[in-house]
Amino acid sequence: MTSSETLLAGTRRALLHRIATAQAEGRTPSLVAAVQREGAIVWTGSRSCVDGHGPDDDTQYRIGSLTKIFTAVMVLRLRDEGLLGLDDPLEKHLPGTGVGGVTVFQLLGHSAGLAAEAPAPWWERTPGSIRPELSDVLGEQALPHPPGHVHHYSNPGYTLLGALVEKIRGDTWAAVLRQEVLEPLGMDRTTVQPQAPHAGGWAVHPWADVMLPEPAEDLGLMAPAGQLWSTTTDLLRFALFLARGDDRVLNASSVEQMRAPAAPAEAHDSIGNYGLGLQVLRQGSRRLLGHTGSLPGFLAALWFSTEDDVAAVVLTNATSGPAVAAVAADLVRIVAEAEPRIPEPWRPLPEVDADLLALTGTWYWGTRAHSLKLLADRWLELRPTQGPGRGARFRARPDGAWTGLDGYYAGETLRVVRAENGTVDHLDLGSFVFTREPYDTGAAVPGGVDEGGWRGLPG
């Protein structure tokens, strides 16, 4: 089954071929996928081992660790309301865990040093009722790594974040999720328990084409790490929110913070980085954000590219099989490369500040030339005029300075330094001095400029 009226026939064919190959080679009972471009679902497709019974965009699958993104959103909401700080130790808000020295930020980015899994028995395949307390989830060796030193993916870490939400809100994780995230975003097919129509989970024998049904347990305290069921339509709606923000849930600035790397990946991981609840994947030069998920009987992947404005979801009902992370990434790539995003028309700024306009042009850090451009909303962009190097966009601040947003200068302050007569002497960027001429003798260059001036090599 496929549907689309907006993609080219060749693109639709390539998307169908990719998921058909994944379902056949991955030996999964069913697979459903969808692609969104510029905020609209432009393609859906599915494959099934039962003719005429392919899942559609309203069929629920269990999404496993994609649940963690929702938990992270709930925590960021608490931060935005001033109810906690990301650098707060857990103990400040949730005392008595035994790991209270770890911070909220570390938990969100999996750098708190917590164990990857809860103690035996295997938590994904056993009832959450056998782990009624946080101590049952954390176990006796809760911190195999020193907090803040390494990135180590942790499911119990997100159990703690779910408990933190419950403690501050005074309600269950599920109720807060429904009221604060799912309902505002119109995600009525994302639920804690499965609601028909939904797929059943299966294990496929590795050496024979036979199947075994998997149990679907209520994860109890571990729910914030992997409980949810959802559909391709709901997850693409969620992807749009994660790309653009929604003031009813989190504003654009906060979701942008979620997308920024918070911790490096473990050496063996294929992801590039981990943000606050979001994985970051590099596919060539393309940067994809989202998450993968797995629980016995199910695999899921959601990736989106803010640069291409394309998102893709792949859901299957097999314990192992298709490499859904790669499939979803390929769906984004196919659309982005076959039908590149059409840029918005160039338009001039609605107004211009003459003083800011006078700052634009060439500036020199020592002898290295840089160009300074004026952007909308009084933002600035500083880049080397030739070759790679340190550059950044800068957001205007009320005090007349700018804060760096990218790379080496992220968080650094850019200021205009004026001479006594009011003229611009130089730009100060985190103590680096940028002048209008290389080592300008008329500017306050640290260390001064040799009085002999520029010279050649005597013969």
UniProtKB/TrEMBL annotation:
Domain Beta-lactamase-related residue range list: 19-336
Alphabetical list of Gene3D superfamilies matching this protein: DD-peptidase/beta-lactamase superfamily (3.40.710.10)
InterPro entries: AmpC-like (IPR050491), Beta-lactam-related (IPR001466), Beta-lactam/transpept-like (IPR012338), DUF7586 (IPR056008)
Domain of life: Bacteria
Domain DUF7586: start-end pairs: 352-436
Record-linked Pfam families: Beta-lactamase, DUF7586
Listed PANTHER family: D-ALANYL-D-ALANINE CARBOXYPEPTIDASE (PTHR46825:SF7), D-ALANYL-D-ALANINE-CARBOXYPEPTIDASE/ENDOPEPTIDASE AMPH (PTHR46825)
Descriptive protein name: Beta-lactamase family protein
Organism: Streptomyces halstedii
